[in-house]
Amino acid sequence: MLANLFLHYAFDVWMVREFPGVWFERYADDAVLHCVTERQARQVLAALGDRMAEVGLRLHPAKTRIVYCKDGKRHLSYEHVAFTFLGFTFRARSSRSRHGRLFLSFEPAVSKDALKKMGRRVRSWHLHTRSDLSFRELARWINPVLAGWINYYGRFRPRELHPLLARINAYLVRWIRQKYKRLAPHRKALAKLQEIARRYPRMFAHWPYVTVALRI
Q1: Computed from CA positions of residues 116, 124, 192, 145, in that sequence, does the dihedral angle turn out positive or negative?
Q2: d(CA 75, CA 153)
Q3: Which residues pair with 90 in a beta bridge?
Q4: 193 falls in which pLDDT band (50, 70, 90)?
Q5: Is-contact 80 68, C-beta < 8 A?
Q6: Rounded distance, CA 22 to CA 181, Å?
Q7: Does the reported pTM lie above 0.85?
Q8: Distance set, CA 93 to CA 28, 73, 109, 125 (Å)
Q9: Which of 16-25, 27-36, 146-155, 206-215 has the lowest mean pLDDT?
Q10: CA dist 111 to 31, 95, 142, Å?
């Protein structure tokens, strides 16, 4: 809290005073500044380096960089054309207009690092080994976490989450095979999962978003 308060005066207030036309977002010690030209970006970067030194801090040498937001309207080549902020990677992505036309936009989606972190969390659950729990108990256990991921990372390009969420369905198939010996064959376990999902489509927080993955 004290560090955040310090940066409010060392960075936020200073930016508003020195560069009132430059929009920025900051979370803790991570920030993104929006400049309209490379010249302005270099000017702000130099001034910011001096400001951090003035208050006894320094810019992170690896994270601090000028990024060219390349998209369908900005075609120049640049060393850095993507950045990650708060678990989202911003880069050029293929999008579709309201008229169905494809175009290149600069948009966020869940980052690879965030996906890896969530994947490790899912593996740590060892869902397929929890035959001591009922299906509903499994859902009550993991739904709060899944709902949080979906609400946060699914805000932009939610399909990027689908492979991770589909993997949870694969664990649930394995759980059924472990729990019920008569459903040990993969085909029977998968059919059972599909049946449950049809009857209770909201039992698991991710099912409304990846029902197609139940056909794996």
Answers
A1: negative
A2: 28
A3: 83, 108
A4: very high
A5: yes
A6: 63
A7: yes
A8: 28, 13, 9, 33
A9: 206-215
A10: 16, 18, 22
